[in-house]
Amino acid sequence: MIDVIDLVKHYRASDGSVVRAVDGVSLAVAAGEMVGLLGANGAGKTTTLRVLATLLKPTSGTARVAGCDVQADPLGARRHLGFVSATTGVPDRLSAREIMRSYGRLHGMEERPLVRRIDELVRALGLAAFADRPAGRLSSGQRQRVSLARALVHDPPALVLDEPTNALDVVGARDLLHLLDGLRGDGRAILLSTHRLHEIERRCDRFVIIHGGRVVAQGTPAEVLGPHGSLEEAFFAAIGSGERGACAGAGEASP
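Above: the chain sequence. Below: its structure as tokens.
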């Protein structure tokens, strides 16, 4: 459902040097699967997710959502994808219903099916108590539920989430992750980026760890954890290996 193959995204810095934000990342997420994308700040997680969401153009490589290439068919990719980010706010003056209606119309949904879909999401995501309240009067957890509803209004089969629990407290994060469990159970493909490793250690079907723009480890929980006692330990071991590999590579490339 989500395919990333040898994805590269380079930037030109102000001093003329090339910044390799993403440098050959490959990953896949099947329907009914939740994959955790892990990495420190600057590892390339957000850049990878923004390419999938058609917000950035890759330098090279391939990214597809439900078979739609994000460069050749960006509208097709958007039709099949819901994108949620902790930094993408909802308009303060609009209610949850108004936000969902606006996005549904942007996706070309007819009015009657759109109203039914909004009612479904209000029930499924527990929005009834505040669905008609301006978003500016909602808590951070409620606003994130509205953001998820906005991403789901067109019923996409794939969902990409960039640090979705970042602004949430413990209860809000737990509730959101329970919702994601249900969405995966409905057959959606979910790619989730987070710094809170303990939240997803027992939730994801697979993990992909990137460091310095490259994949340094990926696999099932058992494969990634290996001899390590926790996902956190496995994560630090993987990025430590990535740093040593980068140093060795730099040395070999030197004249």
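The first strand starts at residue 2 and ends at 12.
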